[in-house]
Structure to design on (369 residues):
């Protein structure tokens, strides 16, 4: 294979670009008609009642915590394995992230371990639908209801993912999505926040816009808000990508089937899909046996023109959290640590073809017999 196969590449078509040009020519660059259209499409696609377009996925999680009143002294439960933003936002509102290990088969929070860490300070759970696979959100909701906790579903990677035929993000108080280039659809930087609660939705729309509210026809500032708005040309870039989402998920399932049939090794743990959901394959993530040097494999794949990388972080193992809380990750979060140290994300997206997936599989077979 002469051509380098990157780990990810967004599928931007000329018709998507044409809509961006439309915005640039209109002069209405921020919060215009495409933001409005994108929000309506998210409501339609996810089945949630309301949607807000924001500047990125991290901003959606941050505002969700603020809107729910999470503050210093509170604790928020998060899986130990995710992109670092999931835990950073808890720190950013002054609260403490309380980590729970993951199930190594699904890479999602181990729901059997949540109740043990609930204290009188616990206010919310942020379950993550990691790599495009729904977590056991029904079990999370049962625990949240029993202990009167808020739920913010971090669905950054899981647009299009269903749990028992209901879209992820629509179970909790909020569902958060990212539109970063590694995600199912992308406008560079962007985020969407869905909710079924009108008051929460109003609060988000006020907070994303400097605290602006119209009262009796007059503009006033009623909260200490942020500028977390999405530009209209970003929204324009993703509205038509959303129409192609299901086709893209179907295609990625065909690619995953090739990996499943071609990669067979005692030293490689393939992804597992529980029967309550189907996978949307934001990432095809495998775990290598501890006898295999994962970082060396990444380098060797690159030498063979294949982009691969680790999948996500064991967050309490990162310097910022390790220095603050001094967790013993080896004993507290062994699965998250193994997924971080031995996990390998492989290419799976619209612009990679089946021949390339076969080539990647064959190369891996040669490298890890
Ligand atoms: C699970 C998870 N949460 C949050 C984020 C943050 O999203 P963004 O990069 O759009 O801020 C990401 C992005 O990679 C993610 O994977």
């Amino acid at each position: 294979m002469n051509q380098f196969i990157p780990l990810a590449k967004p599928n931007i078509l000329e018709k998507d670009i044409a809509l961006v040009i439309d915005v640039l020519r209109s002069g209405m660059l921020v919060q215009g008609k495409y933001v409005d259209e994108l929000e309506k499409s998210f409501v339609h696609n996810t089945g949630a009642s309301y949607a807000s377009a924001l500047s990125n996925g991290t901003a959606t999680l941050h505002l969700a915590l603020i809107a729910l009143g999470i503050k210093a002294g509170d604790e928020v439960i998060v899986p130990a394995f995710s992109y670092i933003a999931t835990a950073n936002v808890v720190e950013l509102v002054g609260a403490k992230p309380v980590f729970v290990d993951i199930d190594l088969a699904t890479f999602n929070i181990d729901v059997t371990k949540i109740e043990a860490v609930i204290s009188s300070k616990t206010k919310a759970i942020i379950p993550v639908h990691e790599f495009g696979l729904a977590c056991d959100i029904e079990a999370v909701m049962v625990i949240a209801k029993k202990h009167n906790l808020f739920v913010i579903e971090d669905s950054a990677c899981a647009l299009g993912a269903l749990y028992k035929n209901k879209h992820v993000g629509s179970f909790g108080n909020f569902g958060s999505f990212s539109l970063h280039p590694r995600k199912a659809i992308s406008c560079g930087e962007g985020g969407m926040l869905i909710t079924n609660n009108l008051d929460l939705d109003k609060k988000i729309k006020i907070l994303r816009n400097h605290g602006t509210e119209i009262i009796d026809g007059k503009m006033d500032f009623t909260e200490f808000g942020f500028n977390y708005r999405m530009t209209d040309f970003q929204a324009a870039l993703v509205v038509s990508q959303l129409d192609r989402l299901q086709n893209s998920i179907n295609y990625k399932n065909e690619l995953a089937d090739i990996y499943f049939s071609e990669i067979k090794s005692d030293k490689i743990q393939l992804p597992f899909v529980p029967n309550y959901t189907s996978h949307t394959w934001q990432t095809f993530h495998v775990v290598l046996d501890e006898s295999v040097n994962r970082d060396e494999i990444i380098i060797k794949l690159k030498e063979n023109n294949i982009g691969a990388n680790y999948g996500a972080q064991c967050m309490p193992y990162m310097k910022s959290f390790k220095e603050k809380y001094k967790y013993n990750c080896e004993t507290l979060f062994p699965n998250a640590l193994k997924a971080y140290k031995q996990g390998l994300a492989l290419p799976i997206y619209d612009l990679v073809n089946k021949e390339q997936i076969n080539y990647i599989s064959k190369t891996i077979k040669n490298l890890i017999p």
The pocket of pyridoxal-5'-phosphate is lined by residues 56-58, 82-83, 85-86, 128, 154, 156-157, 178, 180, 191 (CB under 6 Å). The chain has two domains: 14-242, 245-367. The chain has a mean pLDDT of 97. The first helix runs from residue 14 to 26.
